[in-house]
Write a structure and sequence with these properties.
The chain is built from one helix and eleven strands. With 207 residues, it is mainly beta. The longest helix is centred in the C-terminal third of the chain and has 10 residues.
Amino acid sequence: RLRPCAPTRLARRAHPIRHRPRQVVFGDSLLDPHAPSVPVERFVLASQYGRQQNNDLMLIRLAAPAPSAWTVQPIAPPPGRAAGAVATDEFPQLDVLGFGDSVDDETRYSAGVLGRLRLQAISPVSSATFLTMVLDKQAGTCSGDSGAAAIVAGGRGADARRGVVGVLSSNSLPCTGSNGLFVSPAAFADFLRKGAADLNLPPPAGL
C-alpha cells in the first residue's frame, strides 16, 4: 500500500488516522519479522491543505533512505499533463501492487502479502480519475488495497520508463472481477509540492 517516490519520501492513500504511523515496512510480507523497516520522521495529509474529500493522501518523510531495492523513479504524470510522461496510450494496460485481502470483509484490512494484478484502463488515464477492469476475471482488488499504485511502462530500450499513474481509491463488489477507480497523482500536484516543501523535501519530479 506504500509507494516510494524518492529515497526518503513516500506517498500513500490515507484512511482516517487512528494511530500515528511509526515506521514503513519494506518487503513482500508485512508479517515478516525480518523485513527491513525505516522509522517515519514526519508526515502531512492532503486534508490539512484544504483537500477535503474521500481520496485523502499522506506524504511521509522517512528518517533514513528506503532500501535501494524499493526506490523507484519519481511519480510520472499521466499523458498530456507534462512533457515526457510515461504512458503514450490513453487506455494502457497497468500493473497494480497491493497488500489487500481476497475476502469481502471490511474488518480484514490486509492479507499482509504483496499481490500483483494486470488491469486494463477503460477510461482515459489523463483524467483526474479513471476506471480499470481486471484481465483475470477470477481476481480483483479488494479490502486493504486502497492506495495501491497503478504502474504503467512506456518506451523501449534506453528510453524504457515505469511510473505511477494512479492510486486506487475504491473498487466495485464483489472483489472477484471488480472494476477499480483510480485517482491521478497529478490531481494532488499542489499538495505534493507544498507538502514536500513543508517536509524539507525536493519537489516531486514531473508535477
